[in-house]
Amino acid sequence: MRLKGKVALITGASRGIGHSMAKLFAQEGSKEAINFLKSEKEALDLAEEIRKQGGEAIAIKADVSNLNDIKKMIQTTMAEFGTIDILVNNAGIILSATFLDCTDEIWDKTMDVNLKGAFLCSREVAPIMLEKKRGKIINISSASGLTERSAVGNTPYAVSKAGLIGLTRSLAVNLGPYVNVNAICPGLTETDMAASLKPERRRKPIEESIVKRIGKPKEIAHAALFLASDESDFITAEIMTVAGGRAIR
Ligand code: NAP
Q: How far is CA 197 from the centre of its chain?
């Protein structure tokens, strides 16, 4: 019960990595605000599953690129649970584009969801954490935000994820010493997002890794659990790569 009594708001928790984090955090005792946009059934089913196991969870529809939606999501979470201890900025999209074929629309949409979404959610949640002088924010960046050659071909995605690393460091400075802000850079992880990639784009990261396999959502969730728990109180502004050794190449 490493998160006993804590309230966690996880964006994009209806599927994939966010879904796995919400499940694991709930098993560790936290109350869950499960954000979704399109996958309502999956989010409602997850909240129901957590409640059946004795936990507390609600599903909240919100587009993280829309400030009004975010404000309502936070109001709903506060009304239900009274506070927010942990924010995971996990919601993300990957749209197929390289540099030369990246349209303005693809660029704007990617930045709005992946980067501005995390900025807005953090800005709206931070006062709650600052008031009680405690909180944890975890941004889900990507190995694509680092220097990986095969991963950075998608320019808007890679730039949005690199931006999240900058946002993490800046937030850690601005919200310290009370709020710990860290990022996780997952390598290729078995979710719908990974399944949507071209075979070549799926093969390369596995080849480049040391462990020679794709990651499991739960393996990213366990890293997030550590950063959400009291065990990581001395860690902030840190970028944790969880990519099977891929980042050293
Ligand atoms: P996924 O399976 O495609 O799930 C994406 C989640 O984000 C869904 O729950 C989706 O909700 C939500 N979402 C998308 N746009 C949203 C919006 N505008 N507002 C609110 N929620 C939104 O993706 P994933 O693989 O779990 O990825 C999770 C995070 O990890 C992303 O930030 C991704 O970039 C990052 N990541 C993934 C990998 C990988 O290989 N899978 C590697 C590195 C980093 P709905 O379905 O309800 O719309």
A: 19
Distance CA 146, CA 239 (A): 10
pLDDT of residue 146: 86
Q: Which of 60, 157, 164, 236 is catalytic?
A: 157
Domains in the chain and their CATH numbers? Answer: 7-241 (3.40.50.720)
Q: Quote the ligand 1 centre to 61 CA distance (angstroms).
A: 14
What pLDDT sits at residue 249? 57
| pLDDT tens-digit series, residues 167-216 | 999 999 999 999 999 999 999 999 999 999 999 889 988 998 999 999 99
Tokens 């990617």 — which residue? 110
Which residues 6+ apart lie within 8 Å of 157 measured at CB? 94, 95, 97, 110, 114, 142, 144
Upper half-sphere CA count for residue 177 (Cβ side, 13 Å): 2
Active site residue 157: yes
